[in-house]
Amino acid sequence: MNEILNFDAHKLARLIRQRELSAVEVTTASLEQMQQLEPTLHAFCTPTPELAMAQAEAIDLKLAKGETVGPLAGVPIAVKDLINTAGVKTTSGSFVYEHFIADEDDIVVERVRNAGAVILGKTTAPEFGYSGVGHNPLFESPRNPWDISKTPGGSSAGSGVALAARMCPLALGSDGGGSVRIPAAHCGVYGLKASMGRVPLYPGCRDERYPGVSSWESLEHIGPMTRSVADAALMMSVIAGPDARDRHSIPAGDVDWLGATQRDIKGLRVAVSADWGYAAVAPEVREVFAQAVSVFERELGCVVEYAHPGFNDPRRAFMALVAMDTDLVGMRRLLPEFGDKMSPHLVDMLTRNWTAEDFTNAITERKAVTNQMWRFMQRYDLLLTPTLAVAPFPLHMQGPEVIEGRMVANNEWLSLCFPMNLTGQPAASIPAGFTPSGLPVGLQLVGRHLDDATVLAASAAFEQAQPWNHLQPGVLSR
């Protein structure tokens, strides 16, 4: 494997700016890795090699002329297929938009382009993002590089796969209920869901022509996925900041993204909850989680206390909020033509007889969870949980039906993730370790409202104490 593929974005950008490497060399290495591994892993549903090479050549030309380039200049990036990219097919994993080409960039794509990133293509996601796994009706299913019989998680599935397989050092994901953190955990990479409003969304459903091409406005975040914490901070320095197209976006300037990764976390008050007090969590996940917690207590000097926030399982409220944020009228109009080609769980959601009470009850429960979390976090600087209740499981399942000897719904393995979408708090998933069978397990770090800096600081400290980027999935040794 080309050694360039192991370099992080910081190193690549520096070498390209110093003209010790060319952007074309770096892009060529990524494209060759894709060509070798894509027949097995299916991370990219729409590769864009011509666009990538044209962007790389443009960066090299600017440097040759002595012109200034952006902070991501020449660094390859993958973009999730739910995020509109001008001139590139953006299918949302659905036959409905099999041939749809966006006419403008979403805000984050606009920003990474302006920063000089090289777009390798669009990565596979479940249909319209309505799943915690990666398969969809339109494309080959993405496979976990640590075990190709297993799911990589979702919905930013292909982005997680591309990172773990060293196809790129940066990827964009979206997170409406854990969809950055889930594949980060299952693929052994880092994923950050910053505070609500940090990274602006441009809801893709800009008129009635495109039902379903939209974000879950009250739940969703766009976030960086990377192989190092510093690279996530670098991406945040590019994509964070307000924009008039997003009414929820918030002012910038209160977070030094790169500086946060250098902070000492000794003395932080850290709450630890392995299961919220009610969730089923696999014993092998609990074991890895306990070891990760001990790093914070014994090596990083944090004050650890085992405590639950105290809310009840808000899963039903979350599903109602997803439906409320959905373009139900527009998507239901698609059912007569496309319903037999849609994912069954999506059809079930669209055809359910949702009531006003379902939605108002969900809003009320979200307020209650947010209030309980606010009160709980007054006592702590950070909250640790497992990212997911289970390690990667076989492809083409929505989730296991038994966890810790308990019968569960097939979405209960996500119980530790989605509450942070209800509250909008910053949350990250960082590689915590491996199961006895060699599958990655993620550690979730949750900060106080708007305290993204502490999440990054704690992530960087844990990464330094327990590095993971030198570990590579078996698919790379074939």
TrEMBL record:
Q: Keyword Transferase: yes or no?
A: yes
What domain of life does the UniProt record list for this protein's source? Bacteria
- GO terms for MF: asparaginyl-tRNA synthase (glutamine-hydrolyzing) activity; glutaminyl-tRNA synthase (glutamine-hydrolyzing) activity; transferase activity
Report if keyword Ligase is assigned. Answer: yes
Q: What is its EC number?
A: 6.3.5.-, 6.3.5.6, 6.3.5.7
Which InterPro entries is this protein grouped with?
Answer: Amidase, Amidase_dom, AS_sf
For this chain, the family text in UniProt reads: Belongs to the amidase family.
Q: What is this protein called?
A: Aspartyl/glutamyl-tRNA amidotransferase subunit A
Question: Which species is listed as the source?
Answer: Ewingella americana (strain ATCC 33852 / DSM 4580 / CCUG 14506 / JCM 5911 / LMG 7869 / NCTC 12157 / CDC 1468-78)
